[in-house]
Write a structure and sequence with these properties.
- It is a single chain.
- The chain is mainly alpha-helical and 156 residues long.
- The chain has one domain.
- It is built from 4 helices and 4 strands.
- It has a two-stranded antiparallel ribbon with strand order 1-2. The chain has a two-stranded antiparallel ribbon with strand order 3-4.
- Helix 3 runs antiparallel to helix 4.
Length: 156
């Protein structure tokens, strides 16, 4: 038995997006989304760890329920969340009819939901505000970076 390769015609546009056979609109390639997600995740990880470090140096306790959160923990969890966001962006790039607005609305809602445990945490008010701020800092870096790699709806 021999294997037969089947290829579909793909057209590349000047912007680097692709148009697959049977479609009329260009879609952003997934690979740049992954690269962007990785870079944004690293930047957001550094930024949230720095934010927590500055707050801690200013006297804000990073203890929740009596357990201190290590600075590396901020970076690790931020990077994990950024990779989940990158996965969402890749899925929306392939499946959503309006990838960019779908991604932005979804991730903004998830960011708001991620702040709820911070508000309810067994910690000082300054700690809760710092935790919420780290979520906003990460979202402010990751969401626009990934959204910029997704196709926008065509205005009519």
């Amino acid at each position: 038995m021999t294997a037969t390769a089947i290829t579909l015609p793909i057209t590349r546009t000047n912007e680097g997006s692709t148009i697959e056979a049977g479609t009329t609109e260009p879609r952003a390639a997934v690979r740049p989304v992954w690269k962007t997600g990785l870079a944004a995740g690293l930047a957001a990880s550094v930024a949230t760890a720095a934010t927590a470090g500055v707050a801690h140096a200013a006297g804000v306790s990073l203890a929740v329920g009596g357990q201190a959160i290590p600075l590396l923990g901020f970076a690790q969890m931020t990077f994990l969340a950024a990779m989940i966001g990158t996965l969402l962006a890749a899925v929306f790039a392939r499946r959503a009819t309006r990838p960019q607005p779908t991604f932005v609305v979804t991730t903004m809602a998830l960011t708001l939901l991620s702040i709820v445990p911070d508000v309810l945490a067994d910690a000082h008010v300054s700690t809760r505000l710092t935790l919420a701020l780290t979520h906003v800092v990460a979202a402010a870096i990751v969401i626009p970076a990934l959204a910029s790699r997704l196709s926008q709806p065509v205005s009519r």
